[in-house]
Amino acid sequence: MAEAQDAGELRRFLLEGHPLRGHWVRLGPAWQELRSRRAYPPLVEALLGEAASAAVLLAATLKFAGTLTMQFAGSGRVRLLVAQCTDDFRLRAVAHHDLADGEAVDFDELVGAGNLVVTVQSDTSAASYQGIVPLAGTTLGECLERYFEGSEQLPTRLKLVADPVRAGGMLLQRLPAGSADAASGEGAGVLLQGAWEDLQGGLAAIAPETLLAAPAEEVVRSVAGEHDCRLFGATPVSFACRCSPERVAGLVRSLGIDEAHAALAEQGALTITCEFCGRDYRYDAVDVGQLFASDDLPQPDRGPLN
Ligand SMILES: [Zn+2]
Q1: What pLDDT is stored for residue 153 in this prediction?
Q2: The domain over range 245-293 is classified in CATH as 3.90.1280.10
């Protein structure tokens, strides 16, 4: 079973008879791919792994067609962190920081004061949704719990973990009463409250190693205890960058012809490197001439960083 445990996967589960649900993710190869694109000190890498896992879990709670972006820019040592996940669970993430390799700081100093912003951008329309919550708490999971309480008004618990091999986490949610599968009648509220507390206790108690390395059935059993659970099939999560020649061409056009010519004059070519995947896009004088000569100028991508 070693292979199955090493594969990245996302699983959803429900507690039978209660409006309680969970999502669990373990990033295997997607995390390795993400880490291979850029070297980070261990603390930043762990935060990035947690953020990437959180972006997948947030996307899993939504019905949408598009891209979810979780981003924060604060006064801390991590100046900017962006994690993006599409509705079909293609993931990318990047962080900017000034932390030295062996440096140890706490969460407060790592992220500083600022806001955590979650944006959901639709693929099919100009519609987007944005939720903002202050960066506060002792973990990224705590910040996100407050995001859910504020933006979605759903009691939510999150545990996020990352090590150099794997990253992952679990999200638990108490849905509004009257949701599918909810029991009704006398005593149901008491039973529900008890089950919700049991789940939270199970999540608090589960060892990070179990969350990251045990088979899905064992992870869910460990959190749900004696409650009956329905565990759904695995959804794969992959690393994929959204950058493309078209998107980068849009970015170059948005820089303007003067800036493009200045780069050509200085360096002989204009090179744009994708922050997420490290891919270089190089434009010489002929390319730049063509970019600014074409009549159909599409709107540049206004996504983060590129
Ligand atoms: Zn890229």
Answers
A1: 84
A2: yes
Matching fold, domains 2-239 and 245-293: no
The yes-or-no verdict on residue 55 having pLDDT over 90 is: yes
Distance 92 CA to ligand 1 centre (A): 9
Domain definitions of the chain by residue range? 2-239, 245-293
**Total Cβ atoms within 10 A of residue 178:** 8
Give CA–CA dist 250/247, Å, rounded.
5
The mean predicted confidence, pLDDT, of the chain is 89
Q: How many CA atoms lie within 13 A of 68 on its CB side?
A: 25
pLDDT in tens, 182-224: 455 657 788 899 999 999 999 999 999 999 999 999 999 999 9
Sign of CA dihedral 136, 65, 44, 278: negative
**Cα–Cα distance for residue pair 67/88, rounded to 1 Å:** 9
How much is the pTM? 0.87
Domain 2-239: give its CATH code. 3.55.30.10
C-alpha Rg value of the chain to the nearest Å: 22
The Å distance, Cα 130 to ligand 1 centre, comes to 23
Distance CA 41, CA 48 (A): 11
CA of 244 to the centre of ligand 1 (A): 7
Whether 306 shows a pLDDT value over 80: the answer reads no
